[in-house]
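Q: Hi! New to this. If I give you a protein sequence and the SMILES for S-adenosylmethionine, can you show me the bound structure?
A: Yes, paste them in.
Q: Okay, here:
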Amino acid sequence: METENWAESTSSTGTDEAQAMFNRHLATYRKVVGENLMFHREVYCLLHSLLSEEMPKPFKFLDIACGDASASAAALKGSAIGHYYGIDLSAQSLELARQSLKDLRCPIDLRCCDFAEAMADWSETVDLVWIGMSLHHLQPEGKVRLMKDVHDALGRGGLFLIWEPTLLEGENRTEWLDRFTSYRSVWAALTDEEFETMDSHMRLADFPESADTWKSMGREAGFAHAEHIYQMPNRFGSVYQFRN
Ligand SMILES: C[S@@+](CC[C@H](N)C(=O)[O-])C[C@H]1O[C@@H](n2cnc3c(N)ncnc32)[C@H](O)[C@@H]1O
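A: Thanks. Here is the predicted structure of the protein with S-adenosylmethionine bound:
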């Protein structure tokens, strides 16, 4: 829901101030994850279960917009992972990801680039593609394009999972954003400044879809099966599973 384009917008300026701002945003997101305000624990626990139940041994895992990969590293602990690929725009996050993933006994392939561009040129076959809280920055055509590229990257029996902001039935984007703003007291672990920055960034960059739209986008991208498998307890987002 938040750090994303901060990386892109700040890396191009190259100023100390821009760097400091990006680092502050990254620190805020890590606080959100640490306090479990977005239910990372529950979501990545679900990912862990699916990896154990559904994946071949060994399996290749592609983490799109992996960030610092701290939650993915926890989900992959003890799994039969044979190759980890991570893509993110932020070099700082990827440095942290290298650290988070150091105990995995498999090749760790981290790519610092735009995920839409990376996926348009992707050539390796993978078993599971995971996107946590990142696809919603794209407009509808971009979302479907990316899903098609993921479809092409998956091998037989492959699984595509996304965890994305989701509108409630009948809710529009403004109402979804206002619902977040009204959560200020629940997110008491953040300072006013941190919450405000997150809130305004979401108003600029977050484009949630309804559950039906997320599923139909997956079908349009070529997946035969699209399922809603988990809703965050605060009902801001859900996990979806796509397969052939
Ligand atoms: C909200 S964080 C999500 C991190 C992690 N997947 C999770 O579940 O917590 C979003 C990440 O997406 C990255 N990001 C945003 N837009 C991107 C793009 N176009 N290409 C690559 N990475 C991007 C940001 O740098 C950030 O690390």
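A: Residues 1-5, 7, 29, 65-67, 71, 87-90, 93, 114-116, 132-134, 137 surround S-adenosylmethionine (CB under 6 Å). Let me know if you'd like me to explain how to read the tokens.
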